[in-house]
Amino acid sequence: MEIRKVGRYAWRYGWAALTVCAVFTLLALSYEAVQDARSAIMILLQNWALAAITFYLLIFLVLLIFRFALLILYSFMDHLESLYKERDKSAVLYREDSSLPMISLVVPAYNEGPVIQAAMRALLALDYPNYEIIVVDDGSTDDTYEKAMVVASESVALEVRVVTKRNGGKADALNTGMTLARGEFVLNMDGDTKLSPNALRACIRHFENPKVGAVAGNVKVINRENMWTRIQALEYVEGLAMARKAQSFGRVVNIIPGPLGMFRKSVLQQVGGYDRDTFAEDCDLTLKLLMRGWHIEYEPTAIAWVETPSHLLDLLQQRYRWTRGILQATRKHSQALWQPRKAGINCYILWYMMFEGVMWPISNIVGNLFFIFVALQYDVTFVLFFWWLQLMLLDVVAAAYCVVIEEEEPSLIFYAIVFRLFYINIIDISKVFATIEEWRGKAMTWGKLEREGKL
Amino acid sequence: MDIIAILAYVILFTTIGTMVIGVFAYFAFKLRDKRKPGKNRSDETMDVGGPLEPVFLERYVPGVTTDLAVQPATDDR
Q1: Which domains does chain A have, with CATH numbers?
Q2: How far is CA A287 from CA A7, A67, A294, B22, in A?
């Protein structure tokens, strides 16, 4: 058993090390080409317009390297801190089953017919002695309610309530669930989510600290069936293992993901629950908590398995909504952007969100268009390659780090190359269009994804 | 032609290709999003009687007054 475990580690670490070495070797080889072509690179400084864009892209690249370095550093520190806490179990308050507080699980469901039963059955098998399940059918037009009722009637030991209401959106459904909740803590999740059995025990530990208002869970992709979903699996791993973990070190996680977030009920009531004025209600609620000074932590071992879009258009629809929703939430709290003294760390969190949501996709597209123009106009194709190589290097290093930390499949590292080569260009175009439409104030709808029932 | 030059051309064509796909995919998604069933749309092939409403499977919605005498009992709990 021990030998197999060591072998698995060696396999994962070996792959990660090999990939990073390969990319650095490629970079070293290309350095020679850069030396040879130094005079050609001077084309980039030929006139003021080219020089200005080159200078902008250079600043962007420096910011990006700084971002990756900082996130890896802080997430590693958070990782060490959690390992230390795991070892020091003497201070745990909720160690006895009888002392564990009640948790209400709120499952909003709108047309989740294909997945609701699997999600609910997974909830019935959670390892926790004191919890209830509230399924809020948000006026589904399919058989979600009927299917939920079937599972509810199967449950004997555990209380499962299924309520139905007029369709009012996810925020409305979550608020309804919160009102009905009898627990001291509320776990909000999605109707298409399957939780790991330890999720409740893992999250509740964080509330031993009275400053912690909420805990964000780890979200993983369950339907890794094609290129799109595998790249998304890598994206989720990177976004959570690196970004959320780093933010968790400062107790300032900026988005509690919809599939798994646990809250103190009193805190939810204090901030007035979910607002309905944005399309990213989870991001908006998180910012409301942060603005009130609550600490938000991340729990990597509490896993929510979700089904991600397996077709390009569905994926674009999801990213379009996320981009506009996050921009709406950021704009709602934008006063903190300009008040660093008053808002403190929240000011930096908002600027970080602006960088990720606006500057990054725009700069990627500007960079690509600029280097394509330079390549075609001056016949210096290799500058585009060097630009791409540097971004790809950052992606691969981050992917290798996350695969090791999250104990994920080493094959995901390969998808970092595919991510940079195809995926991100397509996604960034959609994000930029979404930003423009949000800026112009164009009307939008929720855009519900069709579930395939892969849970 | 060395390996760097070949890779550079691969990246150039891939970047141009994916950006074009990105623009077309975005407009395809917007087009699909716009195309929704509307009340005003008529269907020439539809039964002259119009669409049928389910009579015995009306869902219970809290807060909405319905004539319970003609409604079936619901299993909401």
Answers
A1: 2-76+352-440 (no CATH), 87-342 (3.90.550.10)
A2: 43, 21, 10, 31
